[in-house]
Structures are given as structure tokens and as C-alpha cells.
Amino acid sequence: MSSPNTTSSTLASKRKTKKKQFVQQKVEVFRASDPVLSVLMWGVNHTINDLSQVPVPVMLLPDDFKASTKIKVNNHLFNKENLPGQFKFKEYCPQVFRNLRERFGIEDQDYQVSLARSPPIKNEDGVCVGLLMTSYDRTLVGKEISSEEVEEMHNILSEYHQHIVTCHGNTLLPQFLGMYRVTVENEDTYLLVMRNVFSHRLHIHRKYDLKGSLVSREASFKEKVKELPTFKDVDFRNNMQKVYVSEEEKEKILDKLGRDIEFLVRMRIMDYSLLLGIHDIERAEREEEEDEMESASEEEEEEGDENDLPPLLGSSSPEGISGYLNSFKAMGPGEFDPYLDVYAVQSVVGAPRREVYFLGLIDVLTQYDTKKKAAHAAKAVKHGAGSEISVHPDQYAKRFLEFISKIFAYSLTSSLYMGRGVKNTVR
């Protein structure tokens, strides 16, 4: 059966496992003006619909970690003002990522709606090379990666999946949810979709990218004048920044971090960062009061206007990953749902500031290989042989863990952050 998307089109499909079956599109999909994003939205919508017709396997097999689905579209006329006439879409390891989404508590239909219901928002960060985007409901992040990183992802995917199974999804690692290749005008774009480390509703007021080194780890002047700069290790030290959480929360965080770093060392991965976002509750309360005053003023000028947005879809349709909150009472400043904001932790009672912290590991696809060794040699020449440059993944991990253990406000006993998992990692 042909879907509305393929009317007046010649669509060829290649699948390693079975012949392509087309299913009726379940939700209305809005297209992005960017052709790559348009094809991504089309492809995610199509492949999730298609995958819903495939039984969930009892267990994943080695071939599932190598599988892919490919769709090639020629002479495409539907929605031609936004979709290119010819394009290709490839999904990597669909059964594996479906299993990972389930383990991370994300329904396929919610994932589909979050990515394909409205155009993603491009992040004009200036830090990331290539495309970086956030889903319209701010629950997902899509990052452009290189073909080498696609290969590295394949190299670690089986071990990563096993790590997620072992820790029951309780991790600071990125939550990998899908990997795709979009081809427009014979140019390939590789995209990796992850859960957003930051909140879909709590605004981030300060953020840091921490690697545990002070060599060339200060935000540039150009970065610092941005509305929301990405500060680094030297800035963290100079700002005398601290993370104020309870002893129990510190122990949980460092325990998770120890297990995750042990996995990264085993995979010979380095150059990762801890992304730290800080939500200032008192500042958010002031901003909310200002917004309410502005809204009241606008209502006086334009009586009868509806300020509330309608539901994303009909009541019987999925509303995306954050959509179910629409039926709940509104949350106040500083409140979050741990089901959605899985990287969030509340500041301890009595802290100097009421804050919510978001902590997650990012950039975990750099394996220690020949290219990395060459880069290390170049840095050693520039900064000197005795400078703070790690040579191996285990040394990088040791330095990283030592730095992160000191970001908390109160000193910890060594038993908290040099436990069994971390000792095995950094010995």
C-alpha cells in the first residue's frame, strides 16, 4: 500500500532483511526548509512506521549490529516545495536502536513525533562543526558526525548496548537513540540522535564543558560574550564554581561516572567531556514574574486572544516525548520530572544558591588510534613534553575523574570516588 508521501513517485527500496512494505502515515508531518532536515524528518517518520510492522525480536543477534535499511526516492513530487526531488535515507542498526530506545524509556511513536512533528531547531552554537539541532520539543539532540565516527559507533555499539543492559539505563553516557545517513544531491550527511542532556523546560543559565585539563581550556573572548557561553575548565576554576548536591547524590553521580569511564577505557575512548548545565531557580522565578507582567500587559491590549497553544495533536494521538506532561499540572521553577530530565539533580538544601544541575558525558566517539597519537605528538611539541596532555585513555580517565571529583562543594572521602569501578579504570 502506498502512503501519501509516495504518490507520483518512483520509490526504490533496499533492505537486507526483508522487502520494503509501505504503511499509512500515522501523523501529520511538517517539513523543514533545510533539505537535510526535511529528509531526516521524512525518513524517521517512514522508518518508524515501517519498523512498527516488524515483530520485536526475542533477543538481538550479531547481524542486528551490522544491519541497515536503505530507501532511495526518485522523481519525488509530494511536498516538492520542501522535499528535494531525489534523495536517499539510510537507518543504521534499526533493531538495536529500537531496543535502546525501549531501555531508555522512550516509545517509538513519541520519538517519531518529537523528531518529525515540527522542524528541529538549528543550534547556532559556533562550537560544533557541522549540523547541530534540537527537536522542537527540546527532548532530543541531533548531531552531524563524520563517516569515521559512524565506523567508531559500529565498533562500540555491541559493548555499549551491553553496558546499558548491565546498568539498567542508569548512565551519564549519551543515550544513543538513532543513527542515519541522509543523501541530498550526492552529498552524504551522517546524523546521530541522542536524548538532550539539558531540560526540555528548565532554562540553562550557565554551562561548562569539562575535560579535566587546564591546557588551552579557557573559553575565548568571542565565546564569553555570547548570551549563553560554553565555559571550560579554566573558567570553572577562575569562577570558583561548585556543584552543591547532597552526599548521597554525589555518591550516585560518581558511582555512575566510575562505571561509565571504565567502559570508555575498555573501548579505548578519550577526549570526552562532562557537560554541566546550571539552572538558577531564583533567576528563573524573577524571569517568570517578568514574563507574567508582560503577558498581563499584552492581554489588556488584546482581550480575547488565546495565549495557550493547542495540543500538538489530537487527544488520541501521541504527543512526543514530553507530550504526556500536558495532562499534568504545570510545574513551578526548579521542578522537573526525573523520567524526562534523566541527567538532572537538585541542589542540596542549604546550598548558597537554589539550582538544578544537568550532568552528562558527551563526545564519546574519539578512539585512541594512529591519528590521535599524531595529534598528541603535535601537542607535546607545542606545549612541552611535561605538559598536561594524556597519552593513553587510562591516563585521560584518571585525570578526568580526579578533576570531576573536585567540582563538588564539599570534600569527599576517597571511598566515594575511588571505589572498585574507578580503581579498576585508572590503576
UniProtKB/TrEMBL annotation:
GO molecular function: 1-phosphatidylinositol-4-phosphate 5-kinase activity; 1-phosphatidylinositol-5-phosphate 4-kinase activity; ATP binding
CDD domains assigned: PIPKc_PIP5KII
Stored SMART domains: PIPKc (SM00330)
Signal sequence annotation: none
Catalytic activity: 1,2-dihexadecanoyl-sn-glycero-3-phospho-(1D-myo-inositol-5-phosphate) + GTP = 1,2-dihexadecanoyl-sn-glycero-3-phospho-(1D-myo-inositol-4,5-bisphosphate) + GDP + H(+); a 1,2-diacyl-sn-glycero-3-phospho-(1D-myo-inositol-5-phosphate) + ATP = a 1,2-diacyl-sn-glycero-3-phospho-(1D-myo-inositol-4,5-bisphosphate) + ADP + H(+); 1,2-dihexadecanoyl-sn-glycero-3-phospho-(1D-myo-inositol-5-phosphate) + ATP = 1,2-dihexadecanoyl-sn-glycero-3-phospho-(1D-myo-inositol-4,5-bisphosphate) + ADP + H(+)
UniProt EC number: 2.7.1.149
Domain (PIPK): residue spans on this chain: 32-408
InterPro entries: PInositol-4-P-4/5-kinase_C_sf (IPR027483), PInositol-4-P-4/5-kinase_core (IPR002498), PInositol-4-P-5-kinase_N (IPR027484), PInositol-4/5-P-5/4-kinase (IPR023610)
Protein location: Cytoplasm; Endoplasmic reticulum
SUPFAM superfamilies from the UniProt entry: SAICAR synthase-like (SSF56104)
Annotated spans, Disordered: 285-313
Feature: compositional bias, Acidic residues: 287-308
Keyword Cytoplasm: yes
GO cellular component: endoplasmic reticulum; plasma membrane
Keyword terms, alphabetized: ATP-binding, Cytoplasm, Endoplasmic reticulum, Kinase, Lipid metabolism, Nucleotide-binding, Transferase
Origin: domain of life: Eukaryota
The name this protein goes by in its record: Phosphatidylinositol 5-phosphate 4-kinase type-2 gamma
